[in-house]
Amino acid sequence: MPVAFITGCSNGGIGVALCKSFLAKGYIVYATARSVDAMSELVHDNIRKLVVDVTDDASVVSAIKQVYAETEGIDVLISNAGYSHIGPLLDTPFEEGLKVVQTNFFGFVRLVKNVVPLMGKRGKGTVVAIGSILGELATPFQGFYNASKAALHSYTETLRMECQPIGVKVVLVAPGSIRSNISAKSAYTMPEDSFYKALEKQIKHVIQTKEYGVMDTDEFAKIVVGKVASPNPPPYLTLGGFTTQWWILKWLRRTTAEALIWSLAQKEPKPGSYGPM
């Protein structure tokens, strides 16, 4: 049976949905999160839960060694673990920004360094990075998240080219708005001396919008797994809410796109509305 290794499988998130979709495809799934209790939704004979902190080298190394001791190897690696911080760049403590980048970018780098050489020895395997449309065009009030995803995108594109000689396929997924629990990890308390007092409602609305999403998590996972598990997975995949709008914005002059996004970000949020801004 093929093996999938997925990070960020806490209850209520994209990782859980990905695990279930891979199970339906006949995979053995190694589901990982920072605690086993956080994966209580996942109950199946072919799901093996591991405690993995992608910001810790020893944790990643130990988990990969266990998988390769128990199986012939990982066929699909999905880097889904993510950390979101909401707030203006000037209000974000350095330590918080570092945590975002360590999780979203260097977490993937750690996985790659430990798994891709082993895939290369077998001459096969697929690596999937879950990025974001915000890694392609930024929005205000989540700058470190945007930056971490932009770095992830560039690294993944480079990795894809460099993996061609060793038979390893690399897929970059850039989701738009997907229903997820990532908002539960987001928090923002406005400092007393913040320059952005007049925009406090707009900033806090960003957290709310992440909670709703506009594409069902299970639908997202089913499409992604269907593409990734195929003999020839696409190098790039984007789906979810607002991806069409983002495609249009990317074709505009950069200064024009930024002006439009900033204009929308300053608007008084309407109750019950949502979006990437």
UniProtKB/TrEMBL annotation:
Extract the SUPFAM superfamilies matched here: NAD(P)-binding Rossmann-fold domains
Please name one Pfam family that this protein belongs to. adh_short
Q: Which UniProt keywords apply?
A: NADP, Oxidoreductase
* Keyword Metal-binding included in the entry's annotation: no
Q: Which PROSITE patterns match?
A: ADH_SHORT
* Family label: Belongs to the short-chain dehydrogenases/reductases (SDR) family.
Protein's UniProt name: NAD-binding protein
Q: What is the lineage of its organism?
A: Eukaryota, Fungi, Dikarya, Basidiomycota, Agaricomycotina
